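Tokens as discussed.
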């Protein structure tokens, strides 16, 4: 019976939710469409936890169910009550289908092309040889080197692109471990963790940071340097904690890595083209949007160049992890439904923040953000919560001794980037899961601990900086 629970629970609970009357929910003004999204959300969450089907299949199911149940081109049977006040507004089927071609998917595709070309022309092997040499042969210090390099890059470029690049470097390193060595898990997991944490260090490191800056104006203004003054120390401390935690949970059996990475950079015309394109793409990412292009546009440059020159051919295309693209698409579609139907906003507004003490508000808002960021886009979570937090911080005088609006916004911003407990939580997690070396439960164990500790640490750090007058 126990083995069937992983199938029964994910199906039965969403069905019960669908059959309940609207009055059974603790939300005023809940619509039928929002009720269906709750059911889809629960189905997705339970399927990602119990894994009765592959996680990429869950994402496809999410998109199909949204098209059938909550889109304007769904089954006619599910649109019979359209126009009634309690029915709600249907989503555009175009928006749901567009998740398959979202800019983040294009960023993934560019990362895949870079990684594939790097592997094909041994750029990843040579980079591993050069970058990891100073860190010796002890597995824990080699992992520290990987995390530091990843964290620094992710401060200035896309976390997803950084992860894709670093995972390509990781391949020859992880091959040294035995098939059952926990070191495989540790090395596959350290890259997305370092990327997610590293992005917090600068205002341009991750989208939630940029969103927060829109609300940090006037007396609460924070410059690029001031952000780094608290962002970088936070990253350093969290990186150290993450390194120690991963080493503790998944300590490598092999006590020494003999990195016999030999060879030299190829000098063929195609190899040189790979080097130039690889470098150009990274430089453009590092430059942010100063050249007029965002990271998504830049990501398509290697796709075009490698396709045009034959560096990546049709046989190589078959090796792309399409399941990862589907996985991320499902996460984007779920966030879209939560946002566009107004369900996420309804849930947030239903919590009476002003009835609690400032400490409860701070930690409650941060942990709410942390939970939401694990199931929907970090950017969508920040976009949804930030205006509410800004208004809440302004209206609550009891928050002033703790830093007021600025503390609330920054703690919630950090929480948005710390949502990394599931493969769907963040693109770097999905990429790491795609390697096959780390499972969902292993990722969740590290992600939950770092998320909770990170929220507590962010509050202490921001409050201290406010107390000494560095911010606020």
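Sequence:
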């Amino acid at each position: 019976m126990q083995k069937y629970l992983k199938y029964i629970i994910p199906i039965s609970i969403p069905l019960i939710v669908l059959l309940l009357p609207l009055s059974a929910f603790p939300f005023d003004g809940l619509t039928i469409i929002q009720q269906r999204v709750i059911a889809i959300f629960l189905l997705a969450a339970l399927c990602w936890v119990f894994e009765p089907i592959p996680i990429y299949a869950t994402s496809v199911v999410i998109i199909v169910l949204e098209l059938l149940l909550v889109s304007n081109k769904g089954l006619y049977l599910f649109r019979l009550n359209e126009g009634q006040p309690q029915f709600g507004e249907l989503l555009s089927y175009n928006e749901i289908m567009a998740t398959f071609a979202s800019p983040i998917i294009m960023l993934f595709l560019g990362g895949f092309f870079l990684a594939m070309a790097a592997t094909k022309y041994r750029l990843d092997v040579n980079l591993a040889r050069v970058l990891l040499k100073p860190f010796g042969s002890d597995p824990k210090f080699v992992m520290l080197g990987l995390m530091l390099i990843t964290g620094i890059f992710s401060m200035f470029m896309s976390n997803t692109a950084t992860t894709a690049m670093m995972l390509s470097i990781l391949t020859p390193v992880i091959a040294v471990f035995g098939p059952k060595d926990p070191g495989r898990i540790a090395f596959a997991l350290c890259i997305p963790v370092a990327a997610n944490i590293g992005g917090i260090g600068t205002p341009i490191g991750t989208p939630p940071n940029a969103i927060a800056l829109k609300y940090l104006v006037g007396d609460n203004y924070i410059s690029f340097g001031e952000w780094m003054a608290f962002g970088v120390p936070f990253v350093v401390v969290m990186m150290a904690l993450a390194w120690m935690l991963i080493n503790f949970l998944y300590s490598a059996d092999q006590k020494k890595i003999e990195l016999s990475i030999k060879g030299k950079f190829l000098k063929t015309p195609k190899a040189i083209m790979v080097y130039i394109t690889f470098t150009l793409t990274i430089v453009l990412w590092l430059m942010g949007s100063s050249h007029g292009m965002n990271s998504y546009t830049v990501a398509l440059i290697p796709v075009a160049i490698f396709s045009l020159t034959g560096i990546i051919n049709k046989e190589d295309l078959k090796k792309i992890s399409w399941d990862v693209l589907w996985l991320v698409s499902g996460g984007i579609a779920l966030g879209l439904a939560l946002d566009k139907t107004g369900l996420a906003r309804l849930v947030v507004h239903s919590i009476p923040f002003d009835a609690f003490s400032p400490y409860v508000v701070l930690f409650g808002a941060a942990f709410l953000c942390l939970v939401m960021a694990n199931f929907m886009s970090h950017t969508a979570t920040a976009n949804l919560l930030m205006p509410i937090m800004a208004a809440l911080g302004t209206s609550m005088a009891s928050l002033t001794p703790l830093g007021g609006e600025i503390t609330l916004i920054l703690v919630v911003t950090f929480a948005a980037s710390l949502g990394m407990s599931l493969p769907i939580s963040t693109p770097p997690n999905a990429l790491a899961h795609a390697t096959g070396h780390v499972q969902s439960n292993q990722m969740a164990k590290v992600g939950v601990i770092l998320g909770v500790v990170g929220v507590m640490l962010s509050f202490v750090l921001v409050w201290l900086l406010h107390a000494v007058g560095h911010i606020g």
